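Priority: medium. Attachment 1 of 2:
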């Protein structure tokens, strides 16, 4: 690939990742369902999707494609896609649910691929490389999300929406550490999903408590629904 195209893809990859990382806290703290939440949420989604696709292309065009990065990008697209589709499934989109199932399958396969890659490079001194931990993380999210029945279980759409996008935000932390904190050891970067998973599990439980029964109204940044 000629230098201008490589430079453009790299700029999109870095710029998209940085922008997504910057606006994510606004999305998390904004009143859920409000104008600011929707606006900045779309900005996060678009920026990160552009960054990930550019990263996938950069990994693929090398003389020897970087399989680990390709799998990592596919898992991230699974997070972003299912998070984006959950509100549309809630509104009755059958196509959205079909795409959600396809993305979940893709995410599970890519996660298994990452686990395989991670096991090949794991050592006694570094038993948990980032490929392994993120593969296990992605597989856990895919397994939990696969149990959602879509239109047959609409009370869970907020749980799945939040889970997928929190998982994507976890990836953004890894992106920042990998790109701009090279002094951080591999073991520390691999710990990112280990730290993110308990937060996601807590959020699933907390939001699940307020979305059972009748459809709640707008819920606040503290994850407490108005009754």
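Attachment 2 of 2:
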């Amino acid at each position: 690939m000629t230098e201008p195209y490589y430079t453009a893809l790299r700029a999109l990859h870095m710029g998209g990742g940085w922008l997504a990382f910057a606006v994510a806290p606004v999305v998390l703290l904004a009143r859920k369902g409000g104008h600011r939440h929707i606006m900045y949420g779309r900005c996060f989604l678009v920026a990160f999707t552009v960054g990930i696709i550019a990263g996938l292309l950069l990994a693929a065009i090398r003389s020897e494609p970087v399989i680990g990065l390709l799998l990592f990008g596919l898992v991230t697209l699974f997070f972003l896609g299912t998070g984006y589709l959950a509100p549309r499934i809630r509104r009755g989109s059958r196509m959205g649910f079909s795409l959600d199932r396809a993305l979940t399958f893709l995410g599970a396969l890519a996660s298994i691929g990452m686990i395989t890659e991670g096991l090949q490079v794991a050592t006694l001194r570094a038993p948990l490389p980032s490929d392994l931990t993120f593969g296990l993380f992605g597989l856990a999210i895919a397994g939990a999300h696969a149990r959602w029945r879509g239109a047959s279980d609409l009370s869970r759409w907020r749980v799945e929406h939040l889970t997928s996008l929190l998982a994507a935000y976890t990836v953004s932390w890894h992106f920042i550490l990998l790109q701009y904190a090279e002094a951080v050891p591999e073991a520390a970067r691999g710990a990112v999903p280990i730290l993110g998973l308990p937060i996601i599990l807590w959020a699933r439980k907390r939001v699940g408590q307020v979305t059972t029964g009748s459809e709640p109204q707008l819920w606040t940044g503290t994850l407490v629904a108005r009754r």
